[in-house]
Amino acid sequence: MSKAMLIDTTRCIGCRACQVACKSWHNLPGERTEFSDTWTNPKFLDSNNYTRIIFKEIDKPGGQLSWHFISRRCMHCNDPACASVCPVGALQKLENGPVVYDDARCIGCRYCMMACPFQVPKFEWGSAVPLVRKCDFCADRIAINLAPSCATACPSEALLFGDRNALLKEAHRRIGAHPAKYYPEVYGEKTVGGTSKLYLTAVSFDELGLTHQGFRTDLGNIPYGIYGREWMSKVPWIALTVGGLAVGLHYFNQRRAEVQSQKSQESQEGKED
Amino acid sequence: MAEKVEKWYPGEGKLTPARTILYVILMVGIISAAARLFLGLGATTNLNDAYPWGLWISFDVLSGVALAAGGFTMAAAIYIFNLKKFEPLLRPAKLSAFLGYLVFVVGLFFDLGQPWRIWHPMVMWNPHSVLFEVSWCVMLYTTVLGIDIFIFALERWKKYEWVAFLRNLYLVLVVAGVMLSTLHQSSLGALFLLMPEKMSDLWASRAIGPLFFCSAVIGGMSVVILESLISSWAYKRQAELKLLSSFSKGLGIALLVYFAMKVTDLYARGATVWVLDKAHFFFYLELFGTVALPAILLSFSEVRHSIKGLYWAAGLSAFGVVLNRFNVSLTSYGGYRQFSYFPSFIEIIVTLSLIAGGILIFDWGTRYLPIYKSELSGGTH
Amino acid sequence: MASLGPTFGRGAMTNHWNDIANSDCVLIIGCNPAENHPISFRWITKAMDKGAKLIVVDPRFTRSAAKADLFVRLRPGTDIALMGGFINYILENNLHQKDYVANYTNAAFLVSKDFEFHDGLFSGYDKGKRAYDAATWSYELDAEKKPVTDPTLSNPRCIFQLMKHFYARYTPEMVEAVTGVPKKQFLAMAATFAATGEPGKAGTLLYAMGGTQHSTGVQIIRSYTIVQQLLGNMGLPGGGINALRGENNVQGSTDMALLFNIVPGYMAIPSEAAHPTLKDYLDKETPKASFWINKPKFFVSLLKAFWGDAATPANSFAYDYLPKIGKGYQGAGYSWIPLFESMGDGGIKGLLIWGMNPAVSSPNLNQAYGALAKLDWLAAFDLWETDTAQFWKRPGAKTKDIKTEVFLFPAADSLEKEGSVSNSGRWLQWRYQAVKPHGDAQSDLWYANRLGLELKKLYKADPKAVFPDPIVNLNWNYGDTPDVHLVAKEVNGYTVADKKQVLNFLGLKDDGSTACGCWIYSGSYPGPDKKNNLMARRDKKDPSGLMLYPTWAWAWPVNRRIIYNRCSLDPQGQPWNKDKAMFHWDPVAKTWKNLDVPDFKWIDPATKAHFGPEESAKAPFLMLPEGKSRLFVPGGACKEGPFPEHYEALECPYVNPMSAQQSNPVMKVWKSELDRVAQICDPKYPVIATTFRVTEHWQAGAMTRNLTWQAEMVPEMFVEMSPSLAKAKGVNPGDWVRVKSVRGEVLARANVTRRVAPFCCGKAGFANTVEMVALPWHFGFAGLITGGPDSRQNYAANQLAPMVGDANTMIPEYKVFLVDVQKV
Ligand SMILES: Nc1nc2c(c(=O)[nH]1)N[C@H]1C(S)=C(S)[C@@H](COP(=O)(O)OP(=O)(O)OC[C@H]3O[C@@H](n4cnc5c(=O)[nH]c(N)nc54)[C@H](O)[C@@H]3O)O[C@H]1N2
Ligand SMILES: Nc1nc2c(c(=O)[nH]1)N[C@H]1C(S)=C(S)[C@@H](COP(=O)(O)OP(=O)(O)OC[C@H]3O[C@@H](n4cnc5c(=O)[nH]c(N)nc54)[C@H](O)[C@@H]3O)O[C@H]1N2
Ligand code: SF4
Ligand code: SF4
Ligand code: SF4
Ligand code: SF4
Ligand code: SF4
Ligand SMILES: [Mo]
Q: What is the predicted ipTM?
């Protein structure tokens, strides 16, 4: 049964207990930060921050102010680009949901960072032998039937942990029950083939202006992993064709050359007569 | 049948100013590389979470390999298309190819967060990963080239029966080389299949694999031309002009094909071509300045038969390939709006020293290995 | 609390956290629970899931406002005007809950003929004393001294009519002129919340410091209570008036009399003047009616708990041992402000700072620092070396001139010790020790116990000791390393003879046969063993389905979850809302079935016979003599008057549009030089300032500015200002600005945001626009982060705030004062 998290941002009160809970569970250090104009702090995900709340002030149609709190973290894609590109299989999608990372395998090529459509994996730039870091869905907690640390801390149940299908049903129930309150789409239901983090928002991510902060709306529903696999599936055939052609052409051309040289010999012999 | 090769070797490598400069760069580079190893990527490069790949990937890896495509191109031409006349160009091409791949491997080594695990892909497999395939191909192909170079050495040591034995495997090596190259040259492009949304649609193409392959051929051919021109200048031998001009015809055709491919691709995807911004500037420069222009140049036989002309044509198209690799991996790449990337001094100097090292080894190789046919030599033995 | 007491009889949150989920409409006014009581939103959100509306009234657009259906931006310090207008709206449109108001409030009572109100002043004002003689604020009594009532509510002198007339002046136009709330928005808010006046509907009102931290704080809360009484929202699930208490055990500390004017269990502290003898005290302080007629039992039992066998009928239970309160500094008692005022005068030699950081939290800091420097010694019991413990080396301090000797005692934190915590909903929840105290830290109980034992020893030893008996004879036997269960049991109370725990306060006697440390907590530990510790219960059963959880922990009084719960039934005993019934009266069997502990007369303890509903309908508010909640507070229990009237804050950019009386007529104004205040509409300080909290920091900051995980989220002192103000001052987002008041200045980074906006108030024709800035007050000068990069800066907002207080509670006016803002 694949686990997931329903992130209902309309319930989020921006208290950031989740940020702290995540650091607490993963023993991540706090950072020296500066005042942040939007209140969002730390200002980016990085190897010490697996999740953060993005504070966003926007105007409602009526001109009144609205203030949104959006939890950002790894989406735990059903068919993760990061895992598909990792040359050593350091990233793995577990079938109960989490996309986890194996410190011992990673060579630090950072292809996962390039490939992730949500720009999630981050690198330990501070270290001499850096590794990749990202939200691991608290796989270790899930393994012993605990909810993820952030979801456990969340006072307003904005982070709901459960079975993906059940959560999807619940998400659509909410949209149906409060059409005025929700943007009628569950971000992550289909995006890049579906993810284990499902978002409900008041307005679309375009309207929130967060498409460049990890919530692109132009990603489509095809899992990114497919592009790579598609190519890899062709590889053996390309190899064989090229190899075959090479050998074939080699003998063909050789033969032709021999024939030609014979021809020229024969013609000479002819003159001798 | 091991033919007893008569070869010509350039004289002793004196410490000419050119060599001195190369050595200096190499030294500084080695120190910087050491710094990178001990201090880490974060401290020594300008890479960041938004730009995880930088100069080393764009040049050492992507460009280096493309320019080193000369080896398999020549091998294919000579052994598969049986264009024996080009044989004199083969050995230098192989040597430079080998060096090109060394640059790749060394460059990658320094680029990895965990350099000492560079061998992991050999034992830890992810058959879905393009990069996994690339690493295997590159590893194997470099071995093939290594064997080639080893054969040269054997000749030098006059171990002809060994040479003879290896020559019997020759076809296998060539075919393998061609096969592997086709794969990884195109796969290097396929790496970028997974990040369409992060790339400008000028380069984000589903056909990027074939495009990379074709441009790699161009890169290889132009380098072969340049390399032979330069070495003849450096070693004061007359250039194999006849050979080169007919060879450059091939380059011209390759460029035309490539141009056609690119245009069709852009048209097919309906990419927005006519805008003026940074990305588009580099795009125009690449497509017209380094593909169309050299193609046109090479259509004139005057150009093909003048050293200057060849320099220009080959130079432009070689540069074009490099530019294309930078465009794909950097110009085109979005990152976050808040971040930007320009290589640090250490990144630049390490790259330069890799090039310097390559040239020095080449220079050394030509003097100790049977690279140049003596028939063409300026006489002195 | 000083408003809920006089109005309803008890000063506490009437309902509890979970119960908010039962509400049909949540009115958040003067608090910001999303940020300061995050867990409340678990229940608010549940209510909203079921269709409840959320209204937030705040000068700032807060994280709570972000969740609201309706956000109302009012000028700080004008809640009374808004609520006055709301009361007027309810009465004009006849939206009050008729049966409720007629039966459960004092609306029907007639008021003495001499009661008057004129141009901002009630009858009996003495300008010289700045005080009222409340004689005329009284019920009209009949022959046998019973209040005269008019159940029809039509008599012009009945409270209902007086109130109607009084608030008629608060028209929507006037509301707009005072509060700056546009008429349309005001009416929308009024209509939405007034809908809970319909019988069966429940609306809850949440408030905290935004309502109380004003020179008119008590009356602001009073105005909230009137609305809730008119709409019949008291005593029902999902209703009530809920003071969101602050510090996680502040409810416990007030229950245990951590206030200057009471002894445990909300009994007045004896005063030198009024209560020389126990008899005086009991006679004067025990009302003739209401549950308080039992006060002697509680008070005597308390004395027995204090002095055990030394408290005998002969020495009137050691009453003389009990310190009596005098006039206090300048006659203002011994609350926070007067303490510091007199400290400044050198009146106080030593200070125990126990879990407090006044060097950041106290108003008018520069004055506070001066006061601390006058001390001979200061002992700080804390988890950290707080700003207070370091006041002598604060930025700009002349350290060598400061003679104060500072002692630092490392305290064990809440996870390092066992004991009970009383939450805002009156639940006493038992906590266990999770880890041993770090280093040589000790629990507060341990320190207190040592202190007690040492004092006893010293007094015993010293032959020249003056009046050692109160100390020497203290009943103080908790062991050398104190056992917290012993304390808990003493608080519950026991019979002296056999040391048996009493079941609850009904078991207490006034003859000295029982002892009890705090009568309202009686029943929390009714047996000898740990299993009798009801505070430790963790049973999630909820028979009512109303989230009362009667077997989870223990709630005072007597495990009652919702107080004044008789009001959830109509006079005939039928619930206003069948689906949310806590009590069932069976008219045939004449018996009650109860899901919560009744807060009304329902059973005869002796005969066990059940009383009918009409009996309890007479007195749904057991703690008040008249048995009804008070729309009008008689007899000066509220010093500003029986009805809340709007006055402006002491520092204010507007002349009061309501009356000639600019500010609270009985507000205490200090004589000390440092208590400078800005003039009304002072041109040098044209901007309103208010202070607030953020989720990420705790109070004076010691607890969060020392934690990297908290510090990284809100690392620097900032000031919220509107884009228009920023433009006028040429300030860009993130710039450092200097905020100045008459008393001091502070550096902060500009948080330019539409969450704050200027106000346009003033009488029609005289209306003008005034900007407002808002500052978090968590920053200071000590700890891991102080609020900025400059170690020579003090980033505490309280360098600006004035030392003026509400007349009843002396709570400082942290929420409105005048400043100017400059770019640095
Ligand atoms: N995270 C966190 N939680 C806390 C605390 C903390 O420091 N940090 N402190 C605890 C303590 S001790 C307490 S007392 C509580 C306090 O809890 P709150 O009272 O909620 O705290 P404040 O932020 O001081 O004030 C609440 C709101 O009142 C608004 N306000 C200001 N003036 C007025 C006014 O005139 N009228 C109205 N209607 N609103 C006004 C402010 O804009 C602010 O948003 O919080 C407790 N909880
Ligand atoms: N401008 C402005 N000023 C204000 C307010 C405002 O709204 N605006 N709010 C006012 C209000 S409501 C309040 S309650 C006060 C609060 O003012 P303070 O009570 O002075 O501030 P706190 O930071 O809560 O102080 C609590 C201290 O107790 C320590 N502590 C924590 N746990 C323990 C323990 O178990 N034992 C001991 N011994 N110490 C412990 C903490 O480290 C901390 O230093 O501030 C007031 N000041
Ligand atoms: S969001 Fe990115 S990192 Fe997370 S699983 Fe998907 S691809 Fe991988
Ligand atoms: S950086 Fe590590 S995890 Fe990411 S792709 Fe490379 S090896 Fe895999
Ligand atoms: S799921 Fe776990 S790792 Fe991911 S954000 Fe929540 S706490 Fe952090
Ligand atoms: S803990 Fe829940 S409510 Fe608080 S910020 Fe995180 S998601 Fe939002
Ligand atoms: S006391 Fe703790 S749990 Fe309760 S609201 Fe405050 S922070 Fe949340
Ligand atoms: Mo408080």
A: 0.94
Q: Which residues are near ligand 8, the ion (C-beta closer than 5 Å)?
A: C 246
Cβ contacts of residue B271 below 8 Å, gap of 6+?
B201, B202
Number of C-beta neighbours around residue B27 at 10 A: 12
Question: Is residue A118 within 8 Å of residue A75, measured between CB atoms?
Answer: yes
B29: distance to nearest CA of chain A, Å?
Answer: 19
Q: What's the pTM?
A: 0.94
Q: If you average pLDDT over residues C4-20, what whole number do you get?
A: 93
Digit-coded pLDDT (tens) for C406-461: 999 999 999 999 999 999 999 999 999 999 999 999 999 999 999 999 999 999 99
Q: Are A72 and A44 in contact (CB under 8 A)?
A: no
Q: Which residue has the tokens 């928002």?
A: A201
Q: Whose CA is nearest to atom 3 of ligand 6?
A: A12
Write the pLDDT tens digit of every residue in A221-259: 999 989 989 999 999 998 999 989 988 998 888 888 888
**Tokens 């008018």 correspond to what residue?**
C364
How far apart (Å, rounded) are the C-alpha atoms in residues A126 and A109?
16
Contact residues, chain A, for B186 at CB < 8 Å: 238
What topology does CATH give the domain A3-80+116-223? Answer: Alpha-Beta Plaits (3.30.70)
**Please, which residues bridge with residue C352 across strands?**
C379
Subunit contact A33:C65, Cβ cutoff 8 A: no
Say if residues B310 and B303 touch (Cβ distance below 8 Å).
yes
- What token pair was written down for C571? 């006079």
CA angle C14, C18, C24 (to 5 degrees): 80
> DSSP string of C98-146?
HHHHHHHBGGGBBB-TT--EETTEETTEETTTTEE-GGGSSB-B-TTSP
Q: Are C559 and C530 in contact (CB under 8 A)?
A: no
Q: Residue ranges of the domains in chain B?
A: 2-372
Q: Which of C210, C205, C266 is nearest to C240 (CA)?
A: C205
Superfamily of domain B2-372: Formate dehydrogenase/DMSO reductase domain (1.20.1630.10)
Indicate the domain borders of chain A: 3-80+116-223, 226-273
Q: How many CA atoms lie within 13 A of C450 on its CB side?
A: 7
Question: Residue A155: which of C38, C708, C711 has the nearest Cβ?
Answer: C38
pLDDT of amino acid A253 = 87
C78 within 8 A of C178, measured Cβ to Cβ: yes
